[in-house]
Write a structure and sequence with these properties.
With about 230 residues, the protein is α+β, with helices and mostly antiparallel strands. The chain folds into 2 domains: about 150 residues, Jelly Rolls; about 80 residues, Winged helix-like DNA-binding domain superfamily/Winged helix DNA-binding domain (Arc Repressor Mutant, subunit A, Orthogonal Bundle). Helices cover about 45% and strands about 25% of the residues. The chain has a 4-stranded antiparallel beta sheet. The protein has a 4-stranded antiparallel beta sheet with strand order 2-7-4-5. A 4-stranded antiparallel beta sheet has the order 9-10-12-11. Strand 4 and strand 5 form a beta hairpin. Helix 3 packs across helix 4, helix 5 packs across helix 6 and helix 5 runs antiparallel to helix 8. The N and C termini lie far apart (about 50 Å).
Amino acid sequence: MPASGIAAVSAELKSRFLNGIGPLDLKVILAAARPRHFRANSVIVSQGNPADYLYLLTKGRARYFFTTEDGHKLLLLWLSPGEIFGGSALLAIPSSYLASTETVKDSQVLVWNRSTIRGLAARYPRLLENALHTASDYLAWYVSAHVALTSHSAPKRLSGVVIRLAELIGQKVPGGFEFDATNEELASAANITPFTASRLLSEWQRKRAVLKRRGKLLLCSPEKLLLSSV
């Protein structure tokens, strides 16, 4: 990466993967990466493919998804700038990606090939430690999602998805936190039908807990939403 690009990324990006790395070491790490641009709805990583690259999202938005044997697409975790994906590239034994990753908006990423990122992790052990923290957070998210799937009602699962997305990718606007999401995407994330999601969101809108508008959802009151989903 050119020196001007390194300076720009260093100044703007807050990434827990790079947390605790000094300025000089950070320049070395970023210089070893290749910047890439992907348009919205591009699949960057495909499940089952060799984990040959590690990616750091610098601009835009992305998310994990999993495709079942019968072709059903399950939406998993949304990613904001600063998050990494393709972490299997750090493993000593060559492996495959467990899930796919796609962009939700036009996005920019930094890419390290497997040998490069493993060499950097050996030179800067803090990178591996930060990646393990990220993996631990992803496991915590999976446990929470699994508990919700097996123990929570449809309204409670959907309200949990709405609140998590508002916290993760929502923008503070007058009246609450707004984020991009269709009924179908929310339904997939909550493992309910689009019809059920539409019905619940309409009910919550009448109670002024949320507001739907042109492909966006505004979370007006988490408290009202939680009360309405009991």
